[in-house]
Amino acid sequence: CFFETRVFSELSDRPREPFLKTKIGLTIMIILSSREKYGSTEPYKISFQYLLDPTIILRPHPKSIDESVLIKAEDPRIKNRKCYSVAMNGLNDAQKNAVEPISGPLLILAGAGAGKTKTVVERIVHLIETGVSPQSILAITFTNKAAQEMRDRVLTAIQKKSSIREPAERGEYPFVSTFHALGVVIIRENATRIGLSKHFKIFDRSESKQAVKDAIREEGFDPKEFEPGKILSIISKEKGNSVTIDQYESNISGDFIHGVVARVWRKYEARLRQEKALDFDALLLVSLKLLLDKA
C-alpha cells in the first residue's frame, strides 16, 4: 500500500489538517483529504484495528490519485496488511465479505467513495439470488436523491440478471425509500386505527410554522416574543426523540418556557387533528408507535 509515512508519526499528536481522526468502537478511521494536495476530489481511507492487527484498508481506484507523490509506508504496523482498490467493475474482497452473508445482522463502516451503495445493491441482488423474495427486502436511506439513486441501481442490477428477472417481471421489487416515505406507507396502511384517511395531508415546514404561530396567538402569547420557528424546532426535536406531547408535559416541572411550548404544542396538535394531517416529524413518531403496538 502507498501512503505517507508521516501519517503514523502524527497519530499520537493533535491531528492537523488534512487529518480527521474518529474512533468507532475498536476501529480508528483516518480520512485524509486529497483534494488539494494530490489533485484528486476523492479522499482515501485507512481503517486500522488499534493500528496493530491486520485489517482491510480501502482506498479509491489507483487512477484517482497520483501515486508518484506518495511514498511506500514502511511502518511495521501496516507492513503485512492487505490493500484493496475500490475498482469500478466487480467487488473487492472487503465488499464481498459484506455481500455474501445472508443471515444475521451485518454492520458496514466505510467512508465516502468506498463503494457503500454498490455494496448494498450487490447484497440485495445476492439475497434475491439465494431465494429471498424481493418483496421481503427493505432498503432505507435518508434523502430522496439517495433513495432514487439506490432504487435505480437496484432495478438496473436486477434486470441485468436473467436468473432473478422473473420476479421483477411480475412486479416484485425490493422496497427502497427514505425513512419518512416508509413512515407514510405504514401510516396509510393503518390510517383508520388513528383516525386518518389513507390520503391524509402532510404539513410542510412553512405550514407547520404558520400553525404554530396561530397557536401562539390563540394561547395569548406574542409571536414576536416567542418566535414560532424556535418553538417549532423544540417540538420537532422532541418528536425526533420519540417524545409525545403528553410525555413532554409530564416532565416540564413548572418551567415557564417549557410550559409555553407545551401549551402551544397541544394547540398545534389540535390543529393537525382538525386538518386530518400530520407534520413531517410525526411521520416517524406515529409509524414507530404503530409498529410498537403491533409488536
Q: What would a concise description of this structure say?
A:
The protein is an alpha/beta fold and 295 residues long.
List keywords for this structure.
295 residues, alpha/beta, three-stranded antiparallel beta sheet, 9 strands, elongated
Descriptive account of the structure:
The strands form four sheets. Strands 1-2-3 form a three-stranded antiparallel β-sheet, with no helix packed on it. It is built from eleven helices and nine strands. About 20% of the residues are buried. Helix 3 packs across helix 4, helix 6 packs across helix 11 and helix 7 crosses helix 10. It is an alpha/beta fold and about 300 residues long.
Could you give the topology of this structure?
Blueprint: H1 6-9, E1 19-24, E2 27-32, E3 44-49, E4 56-59, E5 82-85, H2 93-99, H3 116-129, E6 138-141, H4 144-160, H5 165-169, E7 175-178, H6 179-189, E8 201-203, H7 205-218, H8 228-240, H9 245-249, H10 256-274, E9 277-279, H11 282-294
Parallel strand pairs: 4-5, 6-7, 8-9
Antiparallel strand pairs: 1-2, 2-3
Helix pairs in contact: 2-3, 3-4, 6-11, 7-8, 7-10
